[in-house]
Amino acid sequence: MIFPITDLWDDASSSQWIAQYFHPHGFRCPYCESGVEHARVCRHSKRGLVDYRGKPCARVYNLYSGTVFAGCGLSARQAVLLLRGVGKGERRATLAEELGGCRSTGHLLGQKVQANGYPLLAEGAWPDTDTETDEMCQKAGEKRATPRRPRRSAPAARQPAAGTGHL
């Protein structure tokens, strides 16, 4: 069963989340670096995003400009939920069905998100001294002790007697 998860989020809170995490130094024009206060609203797109036109450079930008989601047809809540699904490792086909989007778009955006995240992975072990229970109980890759081998060599195979053959 596919659960319509996009009904759980609204566009306002999703846009606020995207602005906070995609633009940590403030939402600005990617071309002239002027803030939203120096721009005018150009249009409201069908996906619920507001496009701004910067007054100094007269170029159009929105919340997705300069991100992986630039030029895609996802609403803000679909983008947040796609990030959530990619972070959890969910199948892209299931994500596309839950979000009501195209399977190939979800796949390509998921690949871009993962490619951007690979440089942020830790190289070595985590420096924490605490170990979680699930880390201690995992038996992945562990094998039993190797079986003992007999010390004697195997007996030689018997040779058939000369002159006897199969007819």
Instruction: Output the strand order for the largest sheet.
Output: 1-2-3
The ordered H/E elements are: HEEEHHHH
* Proportion in helices: 25-40%
- Structural class, judged by helices and strands? mainly alpha
* Integer-rounded radius of gyration: 29 Å
Shape: elongated
Average residue-wise pLDDT:
76
Termini, distance in Å? Answer: 66 Å
Model regions low in confidence, pLDDT < 50 over at least 5 residues = none
User: Main sheet?
Assistant: 3 strands, antiparallel
Count of helices?
Answer: 5
What is the tally of beta strands? 3
Indicate the proportion of strand residues. Answer: 5-15%
Structure characteristics:
167 residues, mainly alpha, three-stranded antiparallel beta sheet, 5 helices, 3 strands
Can you walk through the features of this model?
This protein is mostly helical and 167 residues long. It has five helices and three strands; from the N terminus they run αβββαααα. The chain has a three-stranded antiparallel β-sheet with strand order 1-2-3, with no helix packed on it. The longest helix has 15 residues. The radius of gyration is 29 Å and the shape is elongated. The termini are far apart.
